[in-house]
Amino acid sequence: MSASLAPECSERKEQYDTCFINWYSEKYLRGSTKPSQDCEAMFREYKTCLNKALKEKGIYGMIEEARKTSPNNDGAKA
């Protein structure tokens, strides 16, 4: 698994990655497509950490602007 873009978020990313891989291999590939609430909670924690770090580094605004101008933008939110 790779480290997070923000080193302070790497532990959360690793926890989420592990959860997702386990869900994918043990549930999804066996026909259970119900999302894992545990993994979703871990993803939200990681996303919150990452967004905070991106804002602190001045990158978040550029990402938001790119989303607005993307020809493939389907209204997705960060």
Can you give a write-up of this model?
By secondary structure, this protein is mainly α. Helices cover 60% and strands 0% of the residues. It is built from three helices and no strands. The protein has helices at residues 10-26, 37-56, 60-69. The longest helix is centred in the middle third of the chain and has 20 residues, at 37-56. The protein is globular and about 40 Å long. The mean pLDDT is 90.
Which SSEs are present, and which pair or pack?
Blueprint: H1 10-26, H2 37-56, H3 60-69
Helix pairs in contact: 1-2
Spans of at least 5 consecutive residues whose pLDDT stays below 50 are none
Mean pLDDT: 90
Task: Sketch the major β-sheet.
Answer: none
Provide a count of the helices: 3
What helical percentage do the residues reach?
55-70%
Number of strands: 0
In what range is the share of β-strand residues?
under 5%
Order of helices and strands: HHH
Name some characteristics of this structure:
78 residues, globular, mainly alpha
What's the short story on this structure?
The protein is an all-alpha fold and 78 residues long.
